[in-house]
Write a structure and sequence with these properties.
single chain, 83 residues, mainly alpha
Length: 83
């Protein structure tokens, strides 16, 4: 899932999603161990989704607001024309 989809969820929905992702990760690890996992990238994607959800929950806990990156203004120097 995209991060924006997680951000739009409520905290309760995120907690539920986290529990579902942890269960999915357990099932994926079990499938991997038994050799029946067809898509090994699913493990990585599941872990990343868990990390995204945990990050958003922690940001909300600390009341950290995500803001757009600040552009650094380019410094320009004007040379005085002597004439």
């Amino acid at each position: 899932m995209k991060t924006a989809e997680f951000v739009s969820m409520t905290t309760a929905e995120l907690q539920e999603k986290l529990n579902n992702l942890k269960a999915e990760l357990f099932n994926l690890r079990f499938s991997h161990t038994t050799g029946s996992l067809t898509n090994p990238l699913a493990l990585r994607n599941c872990k990343r989704d868990i990390a995204k959800v945990k990050t958003i929950l922690r940001e909300r806990e600390l009341n950290i607001a995500k803001t757009a990156p600040v552009e650094v203004a380019k410094k320009t120097t004007k040379k005085a024309k002597q004439g």
